[in-house]
Specification:
A five-stranded antiparallel β-sheet has the order 5-6-3-9-10, with no helix packed on it. It is 27% helix and 24% strand. It is α+β, with helices and mostly antiparallel strands.
Length: 243
């Protein structure tokens, strides 16, 4: 085979190899990014467990600015305490979990933070669905379960962070719920015939037990009879004097 022909073949083969490698890297990059949660040696029913979350950046033009976590069953927002994270970031509870957010991170920088859970539930694994927001408004939805996260033929899935737990330690028990304020006793409902207000009580005090006639009525009638009797006697006395 002439030398020029062999050179052209080698160059062409090298170019194809480089192109194939570049393609593989391009496809592998997004597939490698993910969000995960770790807690070394975590067991079911463990208390005050530190969970470390890592959210890898997929954007080449914007930084991560917020992470929203949907808590699994058995953990409530009140059970979560923020321990540490990116500078200036804070935790805020939501109706279904919490968010950690703050100044946007540098482009390409991963977000890592730690929260403490009051107690892990008695289960084999926990899934923490996560919404990852960038400074330009882009959102990565890491919410797929194992059976959903296989993705396409290139493995482009978005699995939710999952924490596998060991069996609970012997004698471990669920802690009591967070104490709540004792409910106040309900005031008794008014009964038939009972006064419902001070004015009603006063009105009730002014009534006789017979037929509900006010006490002042018979007193007034008696006084009127006395006055009429005295008046009649006085008239008769004057007539007698005149005669």
């Amino acid at each position: 085979m002439p030398r020029p022909t062999l050179t052209r073949i080698l160059r062409r083969t090298g170019a194809l190899t480089a192109a194939a490698l570049a393609t593989a890297v391009a496809f592998a990059g997004p597939a490698a990014a993910h969000t995960e949660v770790e807690a070394e040696g975590a067991r079911a029913l463990d208390q005050n467990v530190a969970l470390t979350f890592t959210a890898e950046s997929e954007s080449g033009s914007a930084g991560i600015s917020k992470l929203e976590v949907i808590l699994p069953e058995g953990i409530t927002p009140a059970d979560i305490t923020y321990k540490e994270g990116p500078e200036g970031w804070k935790l805020a509870p939501t109706s279904r979990g919490y968010t950690v957010s703050g100044p946007k991170l540098a482009v390409g920088k991963d977000a890592e933070y730690v929260v403490t859970v009051r107690q892990l539930p008695d289960t084999k694994s926990l899934v923490f669905k996560t919404l990852q927001t960038y400074s330009d408004g882009q959102v990565d939805r890491w919410i797929e379960l194992d059976e959903e996260s296989a993705g396409d033929d290139h493995g482009h899935g978005h699995p939710a962070p999952r924490l596998d737990l060991k069996a609970a330690a012997p004698g471990a028990k669920p802690v009591s719920p967070t104490p709540t304020e004792e409910p106040t006793s309900a005031s008794p409902s008014p009964t038939t015939g009972a006064p419902s207000s001070p004015s009603a009580q006063a009105a009730a005090d002014d009534t006789d037990g017979d037929d509900g006639i006010p006490v002042g009525v018979p007193i007034g009638i008696g006084a009127a009879v006395v006055v009429l009797g005295v008046g009649a006697w006085w008239l008769r006395s004057r007539r007698g004097g005149a005669a």
